Amino acid sequence: MTLEYETTFIVIDALDEYSESENDALWFLSTISSVGSKVKIMCSSRFSTTFDAYFNSIEKVEISARDEDIELFLDSEIARLPTLSSLSKHLRAEPDLRRHIIVSITGECQGMFLLAKLHLESLLPKINRKAVRLALASLPGTLNDTYSDALERIRDQPAEMAELAELVLLWVICARQNLTVMQLQHMYAMQELVEDMALEDDDLPDGDVLTAACGGLITVDKESQAINVIHYTAQQYFEISLAPKLMTARISLTKVSLAYLVLPNFSTGFCTSDTAMAQRLREYPFIEYAAKNWGSEMNLIDAGELLPDLERLWSNPVAVEMTSQVWSLSNARYPNWSQEFPRNCPALVLAAVYDLPAILRQMIANGHDIEGRGSDEETALIRAATFGQVANVRTLLELGAEVDAQDYMNETALHRAARKGNEEIIRVLIGEGAGVNNKASSNWTALMLAVSCESLNAVRILVEAGAELMSETEWGDTALTMALRSGKENIAVFLADHGAVLPRGLAGRRAFTIACQRGLQHVAQRLTLDYEAVAGRPLQRQSSRLMGGLPQIVRELPQEESTASGTETEPSDEVSLGELMEQYNIKTGFDQRYKITQKIGNGHSATVHLCTDRVTGMVFAVKVLEGVTPGNPLRAKNFKGIGGEIQLLRELQKHYHPNLMWHQK
User: Fold this and answer.
1) 3-class DSSP assignment, residue 640
2) pLDDT per residue over 46-101, tens digit each?
3) Do 267 and 188 form a contact (C-beta atoms < 8 A)?
4) Which amino acids does the record list as binding ATP (predicted)?
């Protein structure tokens, strides 16, 4: 994208919050900077000696709140106080107290709006004006002292409210994503619910009561209703000061999630339409969090006491299927968005996503099939490798899992690990005898997948284990052509060092062309010393030019024709079907994913059929182009038409219009 503009401006806010490691943040920054000199970057960050040294020669502007800024902020916050609040009454009785509050807090807040806000919050419960003055005379001088005082105020509430506030605060701290007020209401209602009882509206506590109990230590976004701890420093402080109670909170959060998933409210099973799923998500806002995070905390707690809760989920096929559907949901809302999930997914496969080796061992001992599969043919081992759960992978292999088990796309656990560049899992699988040259859909190998994820280390491990360097996809691509076309010079050089050469024909020629366009002339020179062997046709005038002129050669390639045999070769504006699919991000392996059935229409160069998704059972219409095969490249005149159709369909997916009718069975 940056190539399209003369200058690109990138603003990075809060660089210090990018990662716990400042070095990771600097790596991120250097990666963006490497895009080119036309990119201009502006960063904001809190003070850091590491960042200060890195930006030593770069212009900096220090931003800090002045006293008048703090005073304006406090004046605005006081004006927004509820009319019936104690502090508002004190200020009406003694107007000069307002100025005293503003001046006193400004002098103690060290230029921090957060500290000013917390100091003002501490005055809200004071029962008389004398108590307000005493509090102003002894304001905490640091953030940690202020947070400590805020916790004490929470604990000084009536016992029931203090217990509620602490539970809510701990849940917000432990949650894997921002909770909303409605989610919090449903979570708290589960505390009182008797097992096997349905959840009803009458069970839900008042949302304002839940949030107000925390005494200003959490904030609620007005639009999304998302709850956050007031500041990341508060999160850090509470994680330390409340550490002994975090274990109990994680157990509570997990129990609530598991209990929610087996509610009788979901006894009808998975939703069969997008409308039904949208309604379920609205009525039961905690269901998506529960389905996607029920196992997230178990590696941090003693899961033994949760076995009864887990058994209730595992022994309920309806709940397992419903959980699998919700777990599979993405943020996209295209037609049939709720139906893209494997049917009959076993509980063992569902559990393999999380770091639960002991639980998996227990499940298998209790009779769960280690090779159990859903409609996508994915085993627990494949799922564990996909999500990088090395302990699960080791345990499943130890218990006899088939190392080369394949899913519906013929992918194995090794394919999945290679796609993610997970070196440790790749080594474990190879050590247990995984086939490094097994071919998945369209003849993709693990080596090709490692190249596609740009992991040189993963590529090295696979090559050293005997991966075939010259394996080709159905479209003629090899690991080397993929590396060149994506501009991964280090991987391309490594493969060449180990004997990889460009394949003869279109794929090799296109890789050569793109490598030159990306500035990899020296790599192209090495790989194309004999261009005819690669391209399958001679390069005119090549003998009279130096390789330093490669960019010029590349520009001339489309006009060149072979005359060696005395007959005109095919025009050079051909485009491989693989390239077309790559350009529009279309997945390969259609026949393995879909079953083509009844023909429902004819055209000049295509037919239209019904086809069924082998995984989800959904029925679609498919346009089948005639004469387009791996060995039959498209002409540029056809590329434009087909590409235009694909672009239009992708736009229709993004921007739905009520006049469009979607056929769904």
Assistant:
1) helix
2) 767 777 777 777 888 887 788 899 899 999 999 988 888 889 999 999 999 999 99
3) no
4) 623
Separation of alpha carbons 52 and 16, rounded Å: 12
Tell me the two tokens of residue 645. Answer: 């159709």
- Of 302, 158, 143, which is closest to residue 229 (Cα–Cα)? 143
For the domain made up of 342-455, the CATH class stated in words is mainly alpha
> Cα separation of 594 and 584, whole Å?
19
Q: Hey, which residues does 610 pair with through a beta bridge?
A: 621
Beta-carbon-side half-sphere exposure of residue 5 (alpha carbons within 13 Å): 12
**623 assigned to a ligand binding site:** yes
The Cα–Cα gap between 252 and 258 comes to: 10
The fold adopted by the segment(s) 590-654 is Phosphorylase Kinase; domain 1 (3.30.200)
Q: Which residues contact 396 (CB under 8 A, 6 or more apart)?
A: 352, 360, 370, 380, 381, 384
Given this chain, do its domains 342-455 and 590-654 carry the same CATH topology? no
The half-sphere exposure of 200 on its side-chain side, counting CA atoms within 13 A, is 5
Q: Which residue in 348, 344, 394 sits closest to 370, CA to CA?
A: 348
CA-CA distance, 342 to 374, in Å (whole number)?
Answer: 6
Q: What is the pLDDT of residues 496-507, one digit of tens each?
A: 899 888 887 777
